[in-house]
Design brief:
The chain has a single domain, classed as Aminopeptidase, CATH 3.40.630. About 35% of the residues lie in helices and about 20% in strands. It contains six helices and seven strands; from the N terminus they run E-H-H-E-E-H-H-E-H-E-H-E-E. It has a seven-stranded mixed β-sheet with strand order 1-2-3-4-5-7-6, sandwiched between helices. The longest helix has 18 residues, at about 100-115.
Length: about 210
């Protein structure tokens, strides 16, 4: 049985990191001993700084199995984002991302690739910053229902459009079938399936389209 949960707590970070590491391959570029949970849980914490809408689903064992987080595209610096930045720096300095020099290189390229894909971000009202469904729940319409819920929120809160970043490791065909428009694509050595010509994508959705 899948149930809704308000927000997330510390014990959910491992479940979130597990979901991300099964889809994203960023950690494969790290060298040496690294903390997989620490690395991927930061993506959840960054996404959760400026939340406009979120849904978290858990199974009968109270394990996190689905995440959808949306954030405004225009935000200001805050103490909360500084706190997560310091946590990232702490992880880098203490070796939680493995070899420090390599980690700096990987994170810098990931950041630049993300900025390239999302160069039109401020033209949109919101960003779907995190959207994950655990493999145990796929094929049951969970992702579609979460997306339907979010779009209903958008319609009721004057959110006209939103943007998201994804890569070839994700089920990006979901966005094509749902009616998203692919607005940008790049090749990245650090995204999944680097053998593909384009393996990173930005999609946009017009909430009020007919």
């Amino acid at each position: 049985m899948i149930t809704n949960k308000v927000g997330y707590d510390k014990k959910d970070l491992k479940d979130a990191a597990d979901m991300m590491s099964k889809t994203w391959t960023y950690h494969n570029s790290l060298q040496g001993n690294y903390d997989l949970e620490y690395f991927y849980s930061l993506f959840l914490e960054f996404s959760n700084i400026y939340v406009s809408y979120s849904e978290f689903l858990t199974n009968e064992k109270d394990q996190l199995v689905a995440i959808l987080i949306a954030t405004p595209t225009k935000v200001k610096m805050s103490k909360k984002i500084l706190s997560v930045c310091f946590k990232s720096l702490f992880g880098l300095l203490t070796g939680k991302f493995g070899n420090r020099l390599n980690a700096i290189k990987v994170l810098d390229i990931l950041l630049k690739d993300g900025e390239t894909l999302m160069k039109d971000k401020e033209m949109y009202d919101e960003e779907l910053s995190l959207f994950f469904i655990d493999e145990s729940c796929r094929g049951y319409g969970v992702g579609k229902q979460l997306m339907n819920n979010y779009i209903e929120y958008c319609k009721n809160n004057n959110v006209k459009n939103f943007i998201l970043l994804t890569d070839a490791g994700c089920n990006y065909g979901f966005y094509d079938h749902y009616g998203f428009l692919r607005i940008n694509q790049i090749h990245s050595d650090y995204f999944a399936h680097p053998e593909m010509e384009y393996n990173g994508y930005a999609y946009a959705y017009d909430v009020n389209k007919i």
